[in-house]
Specification:
Radius of gyration: 20 Å
Shape: flat
Strand order of the largest sheet: 3-2-1-4
CATH topology of the largest domain: Trna Endonuclease, Chain: A, domain 1
Number of domains: 2
Number of strands: 8
Order of helices and strands: HEEEHEHEHEEHEH
Helix content: 40-55%
CATH architecture of the largest domain: 3-Layer(aba) Sandwich
């Protein structure tokens, strides 16, 4: 969840009597946010039920769904959602203007990275997984330090995937010898769920094939 984007929508909803959520016809899992049922103009787009609840809570407005309400995320997925308002950083005032700028850009990059990982994980909820891929979890903090974002539990063991935002970053990651057993998927956080889902499953398929290949070579040795 990108808090800057959601807080911007909260501010746009100030003064309204309610917020209305409509299904976007050409996007899986995406909804448009409007002021009322007669207002045709879209004031923003949101992803899922949790983002609608975040906006309603902070704007103190009721929510009207003009489409079926999507299911809530499973409990183990809610660790991705940060409902608290961001606290001001007291260290920011002690930094030079250039250091403040670097920190702001660094926070924005981290926020976008978290959104990409969130979209990659939740895209898998839109359709059943393959028989060989049982379920997918967020990496543990220790795995995250090793460059792992998602862990797939499969018929050949744990499959590790790193989420990147562009092909150049993916190539740079694969050049690191420590990433030999980690596959990379490039995710555009603004893409449709189905596009992201296909890319993520394909990444798990590639790393599964690599594991199977290594197992065959070991058995033949």
């Amino acid at each position: 969840m990108a808090l800057d984007r959601l807080n911007h929508l909260v501010n746009r909803c100030r003064g309204a009597k309610q917020i209305v959520v409509c299904k976007e016809p050409h996007s899986v899992g995406e909804f448009s946010l409007r002021w009322d049922e007669r207002e045709g103009r879209c004031i923003g787009r949101i992803q899922g039920r949790e983002e609608a609840e975040y906006i309603a809570t902070h704007a103190k407005l009721p929510v009207v769904w003009l489409c079926p309400v999507p299911p809530a995320l499973p409990a183990h997925r809610l660790q991705w959602m940060r409902y608290e308002q961001p606290e001001p950083d007291p260290k920011l005032a002690k930094l030079t203007p250039r250091q403040q700028q670097n920190k702001v850009f660094g926070d924005m990059a981290r926020e976008r990275g978290e959104l990409r990982e969130y979209r990659a994980l939740t895209s898998l909820d839109t359709a059943p997984l393959h028989a060989w891929l049982l379920w997918v979890d967020k990496a543990t903090p220790e795995e995250d330090r090793r460059g792992i974002d998602l862990v797939g539990h499969s018929d050949v063991g744990r499959l590790k995937v790193q989420v990147k935002g562009c092909a150049a970053a993916a190539r740079a990651f694969k050049q690191d010898p420590r990433s030999r057993d980690i596959e990379v998927v490039v995710v555009n956080e603004h893409a449709d769920d189905e596009v992201i889902r296909v890319a993520v499953v394909d990444a798990f398929r590639r790393v599964r094939a690599a594991v199977q290949s290594r197992s065959r070579k070991m058995s033949e040795a």
